[in-house]
Amino acid sequence: MVGATVFSAALVAAAQVVLATPVARSGYSLKDSHNVPRGWAKVKRAPADHVMQIQIGLKQSNFAELERQLYQGTSMLVSDPEHPKYGQHLSADEVKELVKPTKETTELVHEWLSENGIMPSYNSAKDWITVNLPVSKIESLLDTEYHIFEHKDGAKVARAPSWFLPNHLHDHIDTIQPTNSFFRARAQASDAFVDVGILTDPNLKHYPTSSGIGAVCNTSSVTPQCFETLYKTKGYKPRSTDKNKVAFTNYLGEHPIRSDGELFLEKFRPEYVSVAQTFPQYVIADGPGDGPITDGESHEANLDFQAIAGINPRTPIISYSTGGSPPFTPSNSTPTNTNEPYLVWVNWLLEQKSIPQVISTSYSDDEQTVPASYARRVCQQFAQVGARGTTLLFSSGDAGVGPYGECVSNDGLGTDKFLPDFPPSCPYITSVGATKNFEPEVVAYRPAFVGSDGVAHGNYTSGGGFSNIFEIPPYQKKEVTNYVKNLKGEYDGWYNKKGRAYPDIAAQGLYFAYFYNGKEGTISGTSASTPLTAGIISLKPLGFLNPWLYSEGYKGLNDVTEGSAVGCGVDGFPAVKGWDPVTGLGTPDFPKLVKLAGAKL
Ligand SMILES: *[C@@H]1O[C@H](CO)[C@@H](O)[C@H](O)[C@H]1NC(C)=O
Ligand SMILES: *[C@@H]1O[C@H](CO)[C@@H](O)[C@H](O)[C@H]1NC(C)=O
Question: Locate the Peptidase S53 domain: which residues (predicted)?
Answer without folding.
Answer: 221-600
